[in-house]
Amino acid sequence: MERVLQVENLCTEFKTERGMLKAVDGVSFEVREGEMLGIVGESGCGKSVTSQSILRLYDEKSFVRYTGDVRFHDESLLTLPEKQMESVRGAKISMVFQDALSSLNPVFTVGDQIMEAILIHQKRTKAEAKAQAIEMLNMVGIPDPARRFHQYPFELSGGMRQRVMIAVALACHPQLLIADEPTTALDVTIQAQIMDLIVDMNKRLGMAVMLITHDLAVVAETCDRVIVMYLGQIVEEGRVEDIFDHPMHPYTMGLMNSIPKLDTAKATRLYQISGTVPLLNQIPVGCRFAPRCPYATDLCREEMPGLSRVTQTQSVRCHYRNEQNGGFVEEPPQYEAG
Ligand code: SF4
């Protein structure tokens, strides 16, 4: 499969009164045609900042600095002039945000908002754009699309609004869809419907998808590969089966252990990773996970581990999981139920 996106050593720093704060630190990964890549981690781990940096959505003039490289096919997005960047956003790479109500414009009908995307990026007459917008509403499963076209966002349910957001994002047939917590504000039934829709679009249109989520079950069901982020860095990367069947980083193991299990003979308390993600101005020296890691040693507290390939398909950022020891020198530590 052809590579659609390649991110190389991406760093995103915000200018603040306390100096530059690095929210994304040396992140590298790629996304291939038709692939679904999941990005997981707690809030504050840099998942959304990474995805928004790809499209340079933060205001570079005033408060952000990007370094590294983001290549979309042959174009280097971090250095592309703003005018050309406008033809990438929404046309070649689209984004769906978690809160459709605040992302849609309340004073325009949903039809107008889909048409706007089509008219900006494609050579269409208004009549053609309207027909295409109604077709998009139909494609994302909105009943009676010709009537819904004339409605305002407040007239639709949360699930319908999220479908409209997806229709806007897909209106110009992007090659990459970035879905940032697309189901967070929805109830579980609607969540499942929206995820089915995204997977269906991924399969039918061959569009690559970057899915940013807290929901590990959704990743297990829908994605091909997974990236686990912690405090601005990738700590583990691999195929879904690698990460879910044999997580190697203690943080990933903690995340996996915190998934409720229905098949255990007797109920156990849910595991909880101790502590919280530190603030960006309090990043620990050495391994960033050391203050929360039950296996931390002096080496961990002094030296930052690199991201090493441990198997052909799995990379881990941990001193005790690397190519030399194959990741299996010690038995993976077992977490006790908290
Ligand atoms: Fe834990 Fe040390 Fe590995 Fe960091 S390097 S994850 S502190 S064992």
Automatic annotation (TrEMBL):
Question: What keywords appear on the UniProt entry?
Answer: ATP-binding, Cell membrane, Membrane, Nucleotide-binding, Transport
The UniProt entry, under InterPro entries, shows:
AAA+_ATPase, ABC_Ni/Peptide_Import, ABC_transporter-like_ATP-bd, ABC_transporter-like_CS, Oligopep_ABC_C, P-loop_NTPase
One cellular-component annotation, GO: plasma membrane
Q: Give GO MF terms, alphabetically.
A: ATP binding; ATP hydrolysis activity
Please give the biological process terms from Gene Ontology that the record holds: peptide transport
Instruction: Note the topology in the membrane.
Output: Peripheral membrane protein
Domain (ABC transporter): give its ranges.
5-256
The record's subcellular locations are: Cell membrane
The record's section on Pfam families has: ABC_tran, oligo_HPY
Gene3D superfamilies given in the database record? P-loop containing nucleotide triphosphate hydrolases
Matches recorded under SMART domains: AAA
Chief subcellular location: membrane
Please state which protein family the record places this protein in: Belongs to the ABC transporter superfamily.
Q: Which NCBIfam families match?
A: oligo_HPY
Q: Please report the name of this protein according to its UniProt entry.
A: ABC transporter ATP-binding protein
